[in-house]
Amino acid sequence: MSDSAPAGSTALFSLHGMWCTSCALAVEGVLKRAPGITQASVHYPTATVYVQGEAQAIALATLAPRVSRIGYRLGELEAVQDAAERLEQEGRYLSLRLGVAAVFGMWTMLASILIYAGAVPAGRIELVMAWVSGAFSLPVVLYAGVPFYRAGFRTLLARRPGMDVLVSLGVLGAMAVSVWLLGQGSVEVYFDTAVMLIALLLVGRLAETLCRQRGLKAFEALALAPGDVTLEREGQIASHPLSAACMNDVQRLAPGETLLLDGELMSAGWFDTATLSGESVPRYLVAGQRVYAGYRFIEADGEVALRLRVNATPGERRRDHLCEQMRLLQTQKGELHKLADRFAAWLSPVALVLALITLPVAFMLGASLDEAVVRALSVLVVACPCAVGLAVPLATLAGSDQALQRGVALRDPGAFETLARVRAVAFDKTGTLTAGRHRVVHAECRDALGGDFHRKLAAATRQSEHPLAQGLLRWALESGDKQNEEEDASRVVRLDEVAGAGRVIAFERGERWWMGSLGWLGERGVTLEGAAHQADHAFASQVVVADERGWLATFYLADPPVEDGRASVRALQAQGYLTALISGDRQGAVSWLGEQVGLAPNACYAQRSPEAKARLLAGLASPTLYVGDGVNDTLCLAAAGVGVAPMQASDAAREGAAAQLLRPGIGGVVQLLRLARRTRNVMLQNLVFSAVYNTLALGLVIVMAVPPLAAVLAMAASSLSVTLNAARLAWAPVDGDPAKGSP
């Protein structure tokens, strides 16, 4: 984004200096209070800020000073590689602090345990051990805990105090009370409480950072690898770095080269457009048509190289806009996320008020000053919602393990919350509902098909990687005998291929075949009497074979559904899910596949671009689940409530999806949704118990003296209870076949 925002009244920026979700909420609060801002959202995992409002109000120059006043830095939307490097540095930073907390905290805990267990002689030795405990806690508190204090201070400045404020007050309060008690000669110190809070929370923050690093891989996979481009300038043809390309430059492409720039063709050629269109068959594009970065140039008509005029440079390409739209979609928050934000917004202030009230009330009721201070400290410790923090993660961890046993890997365990509420399930076509392996569904031949024909067909298609040729090869091998083609007339001595159109094959005994599309054979003057396309097989791809006498055979090939496709779609429909097929492929193939798997004709959408697919998905009942395997599906995977990548998905789809199927077919989707409903039930049980615990515990420490150590033990007990409840999910596996509809 530029310094002056466009008139579209929306902008994306990168936020630097975030430490936790409380930081995200603090910045979000500051932005929402800014004049002229109608909407603001901060996505913590990718550190992306989305703002909407008046053009001048959302300019970087306007917003950056507001954010800097609370200690953060707002900047241009950073490149994916820069974000990955920044997160890697944060990971090393956290690992170092966690190492300090572990090494020094271990000795603090050991000294405290010796005192609690009465393992040292009472009196002077106990006092020495208490001082030793405090001494070893200092590096933890003064170094490892600094990020908590900084984040707490910043969120206070933003008037959005979060968990870091509670943690900071709990740690510093435990240290202050312990030093004060030591000064009075008491060994009832709480250095171990401070150390435990810091160490455990650092572990959680490090895990969050690693998850954020993994989340950025979706954008890395979508980005094209940098390279050089061949440009024509002032009559000279030379290779230039990609960054040197300018608008209206003329680029030359060699066969097999992947486009790194968007442009307009100056001559016709064949392209593999699967990365953005999803079509498995190459397309013939004529002069004047637009091509996009990610397309692969196959061959030009009558030319070695192809020329195009550049009309989008890096940062403005269609692929770059797809990446930007993914980041925009990720900044939008679901209802559960908003509910969690509201919970965090009021919990910390309530705990602080209760602690402040407890101190004078306990003192007025006859407690000594040190007892009143300890009781207030206990309120802060009890208010740290460890059980609440564990309630959902433990359930998702158990659910993720169960999903893995059933062939589904969850990249984002938090997706369980959305999965349990999914109302619509949409599928891509090629590579998702189909295996991407074309098969012959109908064949016609001029003469009786003998073993010699099958061997020649196998030899003619053996070296081709085209999906239709591979389908013909499988048909020939399955239908013919096993005689070695090298020993008879089927041996190929010459093969000339016109990429995306057909091939001319010369066999050893002088026979020649032409194999390709009906139009291509007609252009070469081949007699095609009897080769007309059958309307009954309009859904299929047609391949015509001819010899010197004319038309020889016609094959109709289609990409059949995966083995469990029909049963899985039926199971989803029986459970009340709205199901749909959204593809970039042609209408005939999409309608036929929909019929094969049991989808209604009005639930099958064909010839949709990535952007159109995302808009169509947004119109389905929300939340949605989308299953797709290609680069052209990444936008839908981001726009859906939950994205799922099938087993053979591309890198971009795998990294952008919340879950990946580890087994062929789509049966894992049925299992995942069923398991998600059970996991959500466990989450809700844990949350209810945690809320009851926090309410009762806070009430107890207010009305009676509870030492901070007892508060820590109570926290441990509540954490153990939610752990055991989450373990039930693993102990009671989900039975049944994925294709069955019972929940």
What would you note in describing this structure?
The chain folds into five domains: 10-78, Alpha-Beta Plaits, CATH 3.30.70; 84-219 and 333-352, no CATH class; 228-318, Distorted Sandwich (Calcium-transporting ATPase, cytoplasmic transduction domain A), CATH 2.70.150.10; 407-434 and 562-668, HAD superfamily/HAD-like (Rossmann fold, 3-Layer(aba) Sandwich), CATH 3.40.50.1000; 439-558, Calcium-transporting ATPase, cytoplasmic domain N (3-Layer(aba) Sandwich). It has 743 residues and is α+β, with helices and mostly antiparallel strands. Helix content is 50%, strand content 17%. The strands form five sheets. A seven-stranded mixed β-sheet has the order 14-26-25-24-15-22-23, with helices on both faces. The protein has a six-stranded antiparallel β-sheet with strand order 6-5-7-13-8-11, with no helix packed on it. The longest helix has 37 residues, at 80-116. Strand 5 and strand 6 form a beta hairpin. The protein is elongated. Helix 4 (124-144) runs antiparallel to helix 6 (163-183) and helix 16 (451-461) packs antiparallel against helix 17 (467-479).
